[in-house]
Design brief:
By secondary structure, this protein is mainly alpha-helical. The protein has a two-stranded antiparallel sheet with strand order 1-2. A hairpin with a 4-residue loop joins strand 1 and strand 2. Helix 3 packs across helix 6 and helix 5 crosses helix 6. The longest helix has 17 residues. It is globular. The mean pLDDT is 89.
Length: 157
């Protein structure tokens, strides 16, 4: 951990490179879309984890956001429409805000006994369609991605 004054934080090269913070009061969804769009050849699953595009999304939320919006995690950003990117950004902000505070991460209804749709469920039936949830490593950091190949079909793959 590094404690910084406001001036030091503003001058810190790593912090200055961060994209819009999805939880910030002044979060700019349009700026997040522009930064994601700039990663045209990257797979959207890896792009969502790129903190210089949009800060705050972690591995669990990446998989859940893509599932909820029915987007193939392996589709190239450049193949996605602005509308799709806007939906992903909005879902990210919604889910992250919903999960502030203590308690288990939830992407499903508070009434559901199971908190997540696909993350950590490889080989199990999709909660939406029953197909087998898949898991693969993705991006330079080889982070695990969980998805439903039936619900998240891509015309690109």
């Amino acid at each position: 951990m590094e404690l910084l004054s406001a001036a030091e934080a503003a001058a810190h090269p790593g912090l200055r490179a961060l994209g819009p913070d999805v939880l910030a009061a002044d979060f700019d969804p349009a700026a997040a879309r522009v930064r994601l769009r700039a990663r045209g050849e990257a797979e959207i699953g890896a792009a969502l984890l790129d903190q210089t595009a949009m800060a705050g999304i972690g591995n669990v939320y990446k998989s859940e956001i893509l599932f909820l919006e029915r987007v193939d995690p392996f589709a190239c950003v450049g193949a996605l429409t602005d509308e799709t990117l806007d939906r992903l950004v909005a879902a990210a902000a919604r889910l992250m805000r919903r999960n502030l505070g203590s308690g288990a991460r939830r992407t499903r209804s508070d009434l559901s006994p199971e908190p997540l749709w696909v993350y950590g469920r490889a080989g199990m039936p999709c909660r939406r369609c029953g197909a087998s949830v898949q898991r693969a490593r993705q991006g330079e950091q080889r982070r695990a991605t969980s998805w439903c190949p039936a619900c998240q079909r891509s015309a690109v793959r």
